[in-house]
Design goal:
By secondary structure, the protein is an all-alpha fold. It is 78% helix and 0% strand. It has one domain (8-115). This is EamA-like transporter family protein.
């Protein structure tokens, strides 16, 4: 079974839509759980690992080869930064108003763009 090929623009739109839908449900679910921060953080982390392994296995089955993963120092740094962002996100959900946490999450791409070096042509 071959997968349809998407242009880079369509892939970006699909990933943005999926990410937006996932993040829009994140804060209400964390609040509705009425649990403590650390158990929710642990459950969220375990779920992330399981879904990642499931996606990697699906790619292996569909394409017949393992996806390229980021090895070494860069992969460890990316994992640590992702873990830190998850921790600080949940801290903001439990310690601030929902509107503040949503604004901070929504402003992250703009902050990244503003703090990046200019592109020289």
């Amino acid at each position: 079974m071959s997968l349809p090929t998407l242009s880079g623009h369509r892939k970006g739109l699909a990933l943005t839509s999926i990410g937006g839908l996932a993040l829009s449900m994140d804060i209400p679910l964390a609040r509705l759980a009425e649990g403590k921060m650390w158990p929710i953080l642990g459950l969220r982390s375990i779920t992330t690992v399981l879904v990642t392994l499931l996606i990697i296995a699906a790619i292996r089955v569909l394409k017949g080869k393992w996806p390229i993963l980021i090895p070494g120092r860069h992969g460890i740094a990316a994992g640590l930064l992702y873990g830190l962002s998850t921790l600080t996100f949940l801290l903001s959900v439990f310690n601030t108003a929902t509107a503040n946490a949503v604004f901070i999450v929504a402003f992250n791409p703009m902050f990244g763009a503003l703090s990046s070096p200019p592109i020289s042509s």
